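In practice, a research group might receive sequence data for several interacting partners and want a quick structural hypothesis before committing to experiments. The following worked case mirrors that situation: the sequences arrive first, and a predicted assembly follows.
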Amino acid sequence: MRRKNLSGAACPIARSLDVIGDWWSLLIVRDALKGTTRFGDFQKSLGVSKNILTRRLRTLVEQGVLEQLPATDGSAYQEYRLTEKGRGLFKVLVALGQWGLESLADTAPVRMALVDRTHRQPVRALEVRAADGRLLEPGQTMMVRAS
Amino acid sequence: MRRKNLSGAACPIARSLDVIGDWWSLLIVRDALKGTTRFGDFQKSLGVSKNILTRRLRTLVEQGVLEQLPATDGSAYQEYRLTEKGRGLFKVLVALGQWGLESLADTAPVRMALVDRTHRQPVRALEVRAADGRLLEPGQTMMVRAS
DNA sequence: CCGTATCCATTCCGATACTG
DNA sequence: CAGTATCGGAATGGATACGG
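A structural hypothesis for the assembly, expressed as tokens:
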């Protein structure tokens, strides 16, 4: 049987994972946020084979995360740009990056961190806050039916 | 050939995805944050088959996201509890949940949202801020070598 | 340079049956 | 209830060759 289709799941986390829970998708979005738009640039950056990249790009376009536009440089090719929906994944990637930086043993020779472009200072750690501004720990939250 | 092992990648996002980029892992962590600790409860909640659940739990334990403890209820079985490292994924899940709620068409009959437990008010949208407090858009950030 | 098509290996998942 | 063992099918990824 196929992997469960959870696009209709009540939990928004499950729905999100149904769209970008695949391994490559978020890395493509990461590069797109960095400004990458061209097929070959994605390929070089990710080191993924071309057919896989084609497939991933197509599904991301179908899901409305990316949009395909004629290249602005006059070439006959396409550009892949994030939609507003796709740019919404920025926070997800920041969260993933901060977790990786703080919680994962660094076997990497080089570590990268996200900084503010103008001052080159690290971005603040994300915070989960209540409507009244209190910092929330996991145990202080719960999922309920919305609307 | 195997999927690339990116545990040594420079980018912390890639390293994170190498650990929890799989589809089930974050759903297990989601339930664990909700307080689920028992094998059978995970299984009922996720609707995943038992052998898969066994495998996922084991790798999450190996990676230090969960820890296995003797059950406190006197039964002969195990409990699975989040480590500090695992609890760090809370923000990732909040980000995913907020994205799903705001950006994904809701075909679900029931929508769930994360609320503050005491006031039952929705949690604030996450914000990416610079060290000086400015709100940052994706284009105002960049990845650089950390230390 | 930008993709697509084909083929193959691997991984992953689900169903089922089984043990303690 | 809490797992393990085995099997088959599906999805995924990589290599390569090919066409626009």
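Before designing any experiment, note the following. The beta strands of chain B are 66-70, 78-82, 111-116, 141-146. The longest helix of chain B spans residues 90-103.
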